[in-house]
Amino acid sequence: MSNTVEGNVALVTGASSGIGQATALALSKAGYRVAVGARRADRLRALTQDAPGEMLALDLDVTDRRSVQDAVAATVERFGGLDVLVNNAGVMLNGPILGADTTEWTRMVETNLLGSMYAVHASLPHLLERRGAVVQVSSTAGRTASAASGVYAATKFGITAFSEALRQEVTAQGVRVVVIEPGFVATELTNHLTDPTMQAAAKALAESMRTLRPEDIASAVLYAITQPEHVAVNEILIRPTDQTL
């Protein structure tokens, strides 16, 4: 994949809001044909209407391997190939380990980690064919774990490990692997929190700083994947200026 993007094809997971939505729109504006996947089909339909270019809405549950395989197949059938996979789907259900609802742990592992793995597995043959790129939207939690975010951080550390192994396997074949690690972004992610203490902490943290916007992360994604073929931007850590941790 070269830095000439006109007509290239991207698949964005978790595209119904936040970073995924902003990234899909940025890619469309740059000239990509974009497939957008999520479980909230109504939001995807609205997104396709707002897109400046051709966009395909896909009903996608990344925790379901068949759903992921079908989404990749539909993308390739519609657009003829795949150049970029943006793994953005994720959920954050922070809370103390003691007394935790472990079904929330399962949900995070299945969505954040296994879901991204499933998408890579299904997309990789097509990305190899086009010498494309994998973008893994991770988090600062993939670098530093903190109290009450142990499982979420574990999924993000897992993404980092998986991505580095993937990079070593495919970089000589021209596929670039990019890990984007945002700090605090103003998205719906904190709305997933079920613990009242965590909800209050997230609200206080957001009010204490000038948070990143989803468009800031979308710009980082676009920067990474539009570099010349011999340049691999493997990792971008991006925090609000006001964020100290």
Q: State the end-to-end distance.
A: 36 Å
Q: What is the overall pLDDT average?
A: 94
Identify the quaternary structure here: single chain
Could you name the ranges where pLDDT drops below 50 across 5 or more consecutive residues? Answer: none
Which range does the strand content fall in? 5-15%
Quickly count the helices.
7
Major sheet attributes: 7 strands, parallel
SSE pattern:
EHEHEHEHEHEHHE
Which structural class is indicated by helix and strand composition? alpha/beta
Strand order of the largest sheet: 3-2-1-4-5-6-7
Tell me briefly what this model is:
The protein has 7 helices and 7 strands, in the order E-H-E-H-E-H-E-H-E-H-E-H-H-E.
Task: Outline the secondary-structure elements.
Layout: E1 9-13, H1 18-30, E2 33-38, H2 41-50, E3 55-59, H3 65-79, E4 84-87, H4 102-130, E5 133-137, H5 150-170, E6 176-182, H6 196-207, H7 214-225, E7 235-238
Parallel strand pairs: 1-2, 1-4, 2-3, 4-5, 5-6, 6-7
Helix pairs in contact: 1-7, 3-4, 4-5
Question: How would you characterize this protein structure?
Answer:
With 245 residues, the protein is an alpha/beta fold. 46% of the residues lie in helices and 15% in strands. It contains seven helices and seven strands; from the N terminus they run βαβαβαβαβαβααβ. The chain has helices at 18-30, 41-50, 65-79, 102-130, 150-170, 196-207, 214-225; strands at residues 9-13, 33-38, 55-59, 84-87, 133-137, 176-182, 235-238. Strands 3-2-1-4-5-6-7 form a seven-stranded parallel beta sheet, sandwiched between helices. α4 (102-130) runs parallel beside α5 (150-170). It is globular and about 50 Å long. The termini are far apart. The model has no long low-confidence stretch (mean pLDDT 94).
